Amino acid sequence: LALERTGDARVARDWRVWTRRAVKMTQFATFYLDTVTQMIYVAQYFAQLDLGWFSDGDDDGGRARLCQWAWVLVVWAVSVPVMQIPTFHASRWVIVPAVAVLAVSVALFLYEVAAVVKPWSCAPGPKFGGVTVRTAMVSLGNMAYAYGGHGVFPESLREMREPHRWPSVMRWMYAGIVPTYVVTAVVGYAGYGGFAQANINLNFPKNWVNAVSITLQLLQCYYLIFYTNVVLVLMVETRWGIDPTKTWRPRTSLPVIGSTSPAVARLLFRTAFLGTQVALAEWFITSASEDVILDLQALTGSVGMAAMTFFIPSALAWGLLPRSRLSDGDARWCVVNLVGGAFIAVAGVITATMDLASDGGGYAGGGGGGGRCELRYTYAPNDPGDPCFVSGINGVGGHPGLGE
Prior knowledge:
Blueprint: H1 2-6, H2 9-50, H3 68-82, H4 95-117, H5 133-146, H6 153-158, H7 166-192, H8 208-240, E1 252-254, E2 258-260, H9 262-287, H10 292-320, H11 328-359
């Protein structure tokens, strides 16, 4: 494209090199942050399950309560084995259970909100409004995050046995995902308004529905730690000559380590790579707000998912497709995506970073609720902002005028 527009082979070569690097850097930063987000999700799920979910009353069942930073270390330990799956293709056996878990989790969400809690019938009830420019921009970043899987599509397509069926895959995926997003968004906002948490299970009471939901979503996020990381580690491993299809031979040479087998090389590198993400997750947990997930998702979505979902595909369509292939409607849609994607990227990064910075309160805690050892509120209706805080859920468990 650059050669066609400029007629200069050197300029075209430079554009190709720099744009490829920019895309790879964007992809790397995006999914690196996304893995950190998944780690914090799993750490919160572990913490919730540890706080007496399967015991009677409000006691902890005699079990020790680990700090959030300790749960992140547990996440590191349990993530190392799944990260030894060499490629997407090798993990194909997980896909059917993962889709089933997603479907069951959505069903449990709808049952919990609409049939069990019914927060719109509680006192004081959900509160709406209070939207600011800053919160709106964070929401747009989260919207980009919701469609952020586009960044791994090229790797998925590359490993497909029948890549010609990709358009069918896209149609089926969007036919399922878009209605799911719409229904859960409407029901969630109607039930909780501005109190809806990024980890929605913090909005739910301590009952078997929530326990099952947390367990299933923990398993799903556990797999996503691999899913969002595998593209990144493969980038480095292939450059180092680590063959993802081999186990013990041929041997490869790693920096510092020296000659070793592909399996050992993957184990050492991927464990260390996860360690860097654990360190960042620890920093976010001990220095940011309790709902750090919301801001991290916005930052991740704005850093790269807005580009990979809106900006880059439209730029490629506009620049590479013959004008005869683009109708007036297609051209206008490309422009909307280019402008909208750039706006979400810039505004989302700024506002999410401001939130993360302003929420920081140090490990001893602070005004933003940051730096807590344990989750402050683990289930409804204990949080004073909960729609059922006064009346309780079905008249049980209210805390009028009291915090936890």
